[in-house]
Amino acid sequence: MSTTETLFTRTDPALGAFSIRPLDPFSDAELLHAWVTHPKAAFWMMQDATLPDVEREYVRITAHEHHQAFLGFHEDRPAFLMESYDPAHLELVGLYDAQPGDVGMHFLVAPTDTPVSGFTRAVITTVMAALFADPATARVVVEPDVRNTAVHALNEAVGFIPEGPVTKPEKEALLSFCTRARFEAATALTTGVSI
C-alpha cells in the first residue's frame, strides 16, 4: 500500500476537508518528532525522544500485525496523528474483556500557535468516522491518562462512556467505550460508508 494513498476523507461543515493516509515512519519521522516532543503532547509520553527514537517507534508500529499508524491532514496540510490497534493483543490485554469488533485508538493533534475553535473536536470526529467506516468495527476503546481531562471531555462529546480506571504499566488510564450507535447519536453522522 502506498503511503500517499488516501484511505478516508471527511468534509467538516465548519472546517473543511480532512483526510487520512498511512504513516511513513521514515518520511514522516521529522514531522512526528516535532509533534510528540512538544510540551502540549506530554500525555503522548515521548517528550525526550530523539528523531531516531521516533523513527524506530513508528517502524515498529507500522510493521506490527495488530497496530497501525496514520497521518491526518486538514486542507492537505499535516494536522494530526492517528493510531488504531487490536486491544485483544495490545495495550489492554488482561485489563478488560475484549469483544469482537473492538478497536483501540490514539490520536494526537499537531501543536499550533494559532488554535482554531472546534478543531480538535473535528479531528476526533474524523478519526472516529474513519474507524467506523470499517463495517467490522463495532466499538472503539480508548485508555487515556486519568489526568487528561481535556481528552475525556472530547471523548464524551463524540459518544464515549467511561468504564473506569485501569492500571497500565506506564499510567493510570480511564477505560472508555464508544459504540457505532453512540457515535452516530453524538455527532449526527452516519458511518456506514466513507464520505
What does this entry look like structurally?
With 195 residues, the chain is of the alpha+beta class. Helices cover 27% and strands 29% of the residues. The protein contains five helices and eight strands; from the N terminus they run ββααβββαβαββα. The protein has an eight-stranded mixed beta sheet with strand order 1-2-3-4-5-6-8-7, with helices on both faces. Helix 1 crosses helix 2. The protein starts with 7 loop residues before the first strand and ends in an 8-residue tail after the last helix. The mean pLDDT is 92. Pathway: Siderophore biosynthesis; mycobactin biosynthesis. This is Lysine N-acyltransferase MbtK. It comes from Streptomyces polychromogenes. Acyltransferase required for the direct transfer of medium- to long-chain fatty acyl moieties from a carrier protein (MbtL) on to the epsilon-amino group of lysine residue in the mycobactin core.
Share of helix, binned? 25-40%
Structural class: alpha+beta
- The proportion of residues in beta strands is 25-35%
Shape: globular
Q: Please give the order of strands in the largest beta sheet.
A: 1-2-3-4-5-6-8-7
Pathway: Siderophore biosynthesis; mycobactin biosynthesis
Function: Acyltransferase required for the direct transfer of medium- to long-chain fatty acyl moieties from a carrier protein (MbtL) on to the epsilon-amino group of lysine residue in the mycobactin core.
Domain Acyltransferase MbtK/IucB-like conserved: 21-68
Pfam family, one: Acetyltransf_8
